[in-house]
Amino acid sequence: MPKTPSDYDAALLDWLQARIHAQPGCLVLGVCGSQGSGKSTLARQLIQTLGSRGLRCATLSLDDLYLTHAERQNLARSVHPLLATRGVPGTHDVNMGCAVIDAARRLSTGETLPFPRFNKAQDDRHPERDWDVVEGPLDLLIFEGWCVGVGAQDSTELATAVNALERDEDADARWRRWVNQQLEQHYPALFARLDALLYLRIPGWSAVLDWRRQQEAETAAANQAQNNRLMDEAQLQRFIQHYQRLTEHALNTLPAQADVVRSIDAAHRVVGQEIQH
What we know:
This protein is α/β, with parallel strands linked by helices. Helices cover about 40% and strands about 15% of the residues.
């Protein structure tokens, strides 16, 4: 019989629970998926279900590690104007991410740890007084993000622009070479802290704009009083082009590297799942 979404969910939960029990201390699971693919929703569902089974879980998003608005503006002035836009490698505080994951692993009973949080509507980090506080010890930490676990590209792949943004605003490939250098030199330390990786395989790049448009509408609805930094359609289409190169690179590379590959269609239905036991 064909497998149903609940079959895939049950298999994933069984695998994850077995990995948690086999891991000394806190298991760190990376979840990678494109914008709008549902990685945050999946992480939330996993934590809720495992929490109901008595496991202590928390989630950290790569998005919450963004550099501040002022720091990215400085990068835009000193390195390349495209770095004013959040998202690509080089626009995150990697050292902070490493420190948070390391501290989360060490949490003992009763100890607490503030997790950084980013306000996308304001395009800036929340003040520390508004960060979420996680109490230890943890059995599972899910670290999710659009390029979590992705490796750098070969330098020969950078010469040809993949979209209008790269063609028109990065004609000399300076931006994408700098981004790739950040991914090669700094992000491996962050991704090396993963004990396992789950990859949400999307049907293709064409689905991302529709998903990201829906995500932006939801962000606007949740931030009606402070939506001055939310994007209109033209801004949105330009924005997602910052992510196209590495989203397609992940699609080409991560299925062979991830511990779990969960394939979804354009309606976010799970249509396949491969688990490396």
